[in-house]
Hints:
Rossmann fold
Amino acid sequence: MSEQQRKELSQLDKLNWLRLIRSENVGPITFFKLLERFGSASAALEALPSLAKQGGKKSIKIASKGACEDEIAAVKAIGATLIAWGEPAYPSLLHHIEDPPPLISVLGHAHLLAKKSIAVVGARNASINGKKFARQISEELGQGGLMVVSGMARGIDAEAHAGALESGSVGVLAGGVDIIYPKENTALYEALKERGALVSEIAPGTRPQARHFPRRNRIISGISRGVVVIEAGAKSGSLITARMALEQDRDVFAVPGAPGDPRSQGGNRLIRAGAILTESAENVFDALAGVSQPSFQDREVIEFTGDLPPPLDEKDVEKARPVIEESLGSESVCVDEIIRNCQLSHAVVSTVLLEMELAGRLERHPGNKVSIVLT
């Protein structure tokens, strides 16, 4: 879908999109596979019970029309905008990742999401020098024309946002776009709302939960052309953001730190693994110089308005189910490998995997990989 082809969803379509992504066991990847298979969210919603039943689940919770209408009203009530994948205001780079959020809520200046962006992330328990550097490099990156994106956490994230406020900054939240977390960042939250933008794929009113943070991190890296990591421990969430950036074909920058400081272990490890050693904003500008907007193809083939794929022979699907299930284990395996080893069509394998996922028996992983959920 080119920039010229992007168009606004109707209110009814947006409501059905929201119902689909809020339904049980429907994640972003499954959402788009359902749209590919059935052509619209309304048709996918009708198919969910049957698919889940075939996958081994007696019933599936489908988000109600009323609950999703209430969510849309809540977004409007706080002054936010609900933007769908494929609409003109949806961030261009985020549009092309493997698992883009179908809908995001944006509070503040949504037009800022169209700017070229760089993420700056790091330790919550940052050192004084780390905080100072984060603020300084973010200010310089902003002055140089890049939008600074971060996760609104204490420490490095907060300093990155503060340094880039004059040029505008985007905060990606792990809870609802109306939830300030942590509370100590209340003033920063208000400043971003007035002079930048706040983004979330989570329903308004939802408090951040542990499982929300990796989802937030893939949006931070997905919006950005690269990720700058400052002071990250060996098990820092910033390393998750860096890994996701690599999976999304983004540049990873890391600021070196003292060998004896535990907060430097993650960043130094990234540099040893090939991250761009970063000592100033110039290192970022030099790496990005002459780099045009990346060309991604994965989502270009998806069109939801063309002819639907032909219906599958149920006998073929029934025969395939035990074969596919036997090929799955707790270790993730590439879907293409399942197709080759089982000698089944892509359509049949995709359908069986959809059934299993909607039944809560399958987990998807980056790189088009899946694993079975052991009970």
